[in-house]
Amino acid sequence: PNAALQVARSGGVDAAVAVLTATGGAESLGLLWTLSASKGTLQYFTVQSLEAVVNTGRDAADGWRRTAALSTMHNLLCYDGHNLVLSSSAGSLELAVEIICSDASPSVKSAASKLLDQCCFDERSKLAAVNLLPVRVV
């Protein structure tokens, strides 16, 4: 197996979440972002890990942490993490909408747009996203 999967299997996701929750550290968020981008690691991400990522994205003052949080959620969706990202009470999509409606930088807004765009790739994610967020005519 790849190195990321080995790290996830040995408790890497849980350890990174513990550090992220305690410190908001960019290093732990970076590790979660990396692990989320690797095939086979989805099963090691829990609702608690997603909540830690969303809370960090919501509370972060810097664009890097916000982008990393959004990109982590996007990666989880890419590996069929629909139930985790879209059905969770963590507020993933709400965070993306909040960021798009904010004065965040273009790169952070781009990451939020990519997360929302990922919800349009199959019927399962489209329905979950539409049921979660009000759709407004532009």
Record the SSE blueprint:
Blueprint: H1 3-9, H2 12-23, H3 26-36, H4 47-59, H5 63-78, H6 82-87, H7 92-100, H8 106-118, H9 123-132
Helix pairs in contact: 2-3, 2-4, 3-5, 4-5, 5-8, 7-8
Q: How would you describe this protein?
A:
By secondary structure, the chain is mainly alpha-helical. Helix 2 (12-23) packs parallel to helix 4 (47-59) and helix 4 runs antiparallel to helix 5 (63-78). The radius of gyration is 14 Å and the shape is globular. It has helices at residues 3-9, 12-23, 26-36, 47-59, 63-78, 82-87, 92-100, 106-118, 123-132. Helix content is 70%, strand content 0%.
Name the features.
mainly alpha, 70% helix, 9 helices, 138 residues, 0% strand
Shape: globular
Tally the helices: 9
Q: Helix share of residues?
A: over 70%
SSE sequence, one letter per element: HHHHHHHHH
Beta-sheet strand percentage? under 5%
Radius of gyration: 14 Å
Biggest sheet descriptor: none
How many strands appear in the DSSP assignment?
Answer: 0
Q: What is the overall pLDDT average?
A: 88
Structural class: mainly alpha
Low-confidence stretches: none
Distance between the termini: 46 Å
